[in-house]
Amino acid sequence: HRIRCHGCYDGSIARTGGNWKQIYWNDLYHTVINVKTPTLISGVVVSYVLVTFVFACLYLVVSYNDAKCNVGIKTLTEAYIFSIETILVEAHVRCYAVRDQVDDVGGGLFQTHSMRLQQPDDDLGSYLLMAMPQLVVHRIDQWSPLFPPECRPSSYNATTAPAYPDPLQRAVDHDNGNRDADAPQVVTPVTRTAIERHFEKTNMEVVVILEGEDSTTSNTAQARHSYQLTDIVWDHMFARCVKRHPQTNGVWIDFDMFHDLVPVSSDAAAVVSTSIF
Fold this sequence. Notes:
Blueprint: H1 20-26, H2 28-33, H3 37-65, H4 76-85, E1 88-102, E2 108-115, E3 127-129, H5 171-175, H6 192-202, E4 205-214, E5 220-227, E6 236-238, E7 242-244, E8 251-253, E9 261-263, H7 268-271
Antiparallel strand pairs: 1-2, 1-3, 1-4, 4-5, 6-9, 7-8
Helix pairs in contact: 3-4
Keywords: Ion channel, Ion transport, Membrane, Potassium, Potassium transport, Transmembrane, Transmembrane helix, Transport, Voltage-gated channel
Family: Belongs to the inward rectifier-type potassium channel (TC 1.A.2.1) family.
Protein name: Inward rectifier potassium channel C-terminal domain-containing protein
């Protein structure tokens, strides 16, 4: 038997009257939430690709029509990749040293060590403005995982040498008076040969992680790159690729010189300038 109650009926719900399309637009949040997940994911992907493609076309037009900008883009594929690479405005950077070596008892040791940054200052969050080329500086001091172990003193002193599990410090904090410290005790002078030997013995690899927010989707984007001993260039500095345009008086970024290197003195004090680029 079919049971019918007052105010109920069998069959589908029928809607009459009212501007139902306008109702959906007025409550767009719940409208999007009630969309099927595959449709929602497809919409996000299509929107992201289209926005990136529009900016890629703009970069390509500028590259072809404005030689002064010197973007260096020749194809649509290069423009699309460039559009993806330049989506971050502000980001923060972290560096790690990964060593893979055999310990005293013959076992394998695979360990990750944090690397303190001097520029940008990791005490301030190591933030970078990605609208301009940036330089990351890690100082090879007593707390650096790149510091040769034979150059450290055997006696323990928390202000001049690291010891597990003490927190990592920076020698620059001692130099500028931010932290009290005794005079550092270096058993053997640190040389390029000693650092290279330490890299080879521990199979050291430096991992750099850049993480920021994508302004297009507000999602977190991350870029990672690693460097081994064969990737390190000694006594060189990046060429100056940012300058003032002589005609427009604006910022001129020369991407043809972005990866170029110039030789510098091995004395670190002689390299310091007001603008590294």
